[in-house]
Amino acid sequence: MTHTVEKIGGTSMSRFTEVLNNILLRKKNGSLFNRIFVVSAYSGVTDLLLEHKKTGDAGVYSCFAEAEKEDAWIDQLEKVKAKLLAINERMFTGQDLSSANTFISGRIADTERCMQNLHNLCSYGHFQLEEHLSTIREMLASIGEAHSAYNTVKLLHQNGLPARFVDLTGWKQEQSLPVDQMIEQHFKPLDPSKELLIVTGYTHCEEQLMRTFDRGYSEMTFAKIAALTNAREAVIHKEFHLSSADPKLVGEDNVVTIGMTNFDVADQLSNLGMEAIHPRAAREIRKSGIPIRIKNTFEPEHLGTVIDNNYCNPRPCVEIITGRKDAVGIEIFDQEMLGSPDHDIFISRLMKELKISIVNKEADANSITFYAVSTRKKINRVMRLIEKQYPSAEVSMHNIAIISAVGSDIKVKGILAKTISALSNADINILALHQSVRQVEMQCIVEQSDYEKGIKALHLALIEEENHGDVIRKIAV
């Protein structure tokens, strides 16, 4: 257990010169080796291959799946190719540029042939396109990760370092293997003490990672590798520190960089879309007893944030103020609901099927409200399906924001009163308030227009005025 497994996010990967200098060529414990790097696609590439993660704008996959215009996906794939070749142009010259272009152009050409053949095959009634869409989605996603991993190895070779491209995409592999077996088979002959291992963030396997984790597949690859290779530490390189709030909202001089926290806090952040790490990936690492360190790619001297299962802040306090500005409240009022859990069960399953993220929910005798995040298209669809299932119900939607106070232990006397007072003094109306018995998170539901003002107000009241940054300790690398 002498090596680390380190994941580099897409935004960081796009600034490849800084990644090279701040991470890849930077010694750890006196050596450049004993490090396995799992790399994401360059920023924006997966959005073009699948669909835009935030706006839902069409990518290659969504054009192919929806088939509103028969050849739209081909045009979109050409846009992807142009973007990837443009990235290569910025990174390489001469023979290195030629080989990088040949590699990714070959992947894209293979993909286009495969998709075109599938499209033709499914023109016959015996074959249904829907049965193959998940496989197409996986294949498309793998292109971005293969591109960035291949290029990273080339950069390291240019700098005279031994590096190996570990391709887990299963490209032209005859048989799918279980994910554990796939990873173990690839890593068994490798020695991270002698060469830097650069791994694709996508892993092709029997389980089809995207079916369960969708865009969180690279973090599952990272977690599986850390667990199966018995890593000393799992490191995530991001473009920001894990801080007490968004410095763009509350000011860089006012935020506290979190030195340590636990997996419970990480799960709360993930639920709000502020993913330190995908919760299922965190579970895989936590079970293996491996700590996670989150580092800022662009401040390599900083020790970052350690997520450890056994940590609890020595003094109860709020550690982070965060939230979602883009949420909706779907309210279902039905007098037939009284005493029955059917509405809750049906709607929860429906939202899971539609891949609508549920942040929280609340209920009283005859109504239930789901606080969710998704595209407007999916929200409208789920509301129609609820109305169809429960004709007597009144279904309404509210555009809301969620402001959350999170900490490993927020059992502080008077915290609820202080929260209400802070928001009231900022002239913010609280639409709903949630605090669990576990007391690791408190959520305030407010109007979307009050989101930024609310974040500032709670950060000032619960963090800045408490001056508790000194108890959020750091540990050495």
TrEMBL record:
<keyword id="KW-0418">Kinase</keyword>
<dbReference type="Pfam" id="PF00696">
    <property type="entry name" value="AA_kinase"/>
</dbReference>
<dbReference type="InterPro" id="IPR001048">
    <property type="entry name" value="Asp/Glu/Uridylate_kinase"/>
</dbReference>
<keyword id="KW-0547">Nucleotide-binding</keyword>
<keyword id="KW-0067">ATP-binding</keyword>
<dbReference type="InterPro" id="IPR036393">
    <property type="entry name" value="AceGlu_kinase-like_sf"/>
</dbReference>
<dbReference type="Pfam" id="PF22468">
    <property type="entry name" value="ACT_9"/>
</dbReference>
<feature type="domain" description="Aspartokinase ACT">
    <location>
        <begin position="403"/>
        <end position="461"/>
    </location>
</feature>
<dbReference type="GO" id="GO:0004072">
    <property type="term" value="F:aspartate kinase activity"/>
</dbReference>
<feature type="domain" description="Aspartate/glutamate/uridylate kinase">
    <location>
        <begin position="4"/>
        <end position="296"/>
    </location>
</feature>
<protein>
    <recommendedName>
        <fullName>aspartate kinase</fullName>
        <ecNumber>2.7.2.4</ecNumber>
    </recommendedName>
</protein>
<dbReference type="InterPro" id="IPR045865">
    <property type="entry name" value="ACT-like_dom_sf"/>
</dbReference>
<dbReference type="InterPro" id="IPR054352">
    <property type="entry name" value="ACT_Aspartokinase"/>
</dbReference>
<comment type="similarity">
    <text>Belongs to the aspartokinase family.</text>
</comment>
<keyword id="KW-0808">Transferase</keyword>
